[in-house]
Amino acid sequence: MxxxxxxxxxxxxxxVVVLLLAGWWFxxxxxxxxxxxxxxxxxxxxxxxxxRGTVPDSPPIPVLPxxxxxxxxxxxGASAEVSASLVFAAxxxxxxxxxxxxxxxxxxxxxxxxxxxxxxx
Length: 121
Prior knowledge:
Order of helices and strands: HHEEHH
Strand content: under 5%
Structural class: mainly alpha
Helix content: over 70%
Shape: elongated
């Protein structure tokens, strides 16, 4: 990668981090913390996962902006590789949050069950 492209990636990643921190700040008082975490993880994944464009030796580009660009400005629409990268990135982030949610739910229920079993009334 060229030095200019590394600088562009650094600026883009910094902007995404600022965007995610702002999202966390404005959503911090939600009662459903798991939904906030899911939304922020999905946004981070689709905005930061790199994908290759249609040109063979092109540098990696963030998958969601590449998908939107190809959908809007190319004749054939988004390429299959970029669409698959977007689907797998979003699906992977959703699966991670699903696993974390199931584990935290099981831990919460077992803690709640222990409290109610020890209370005779």
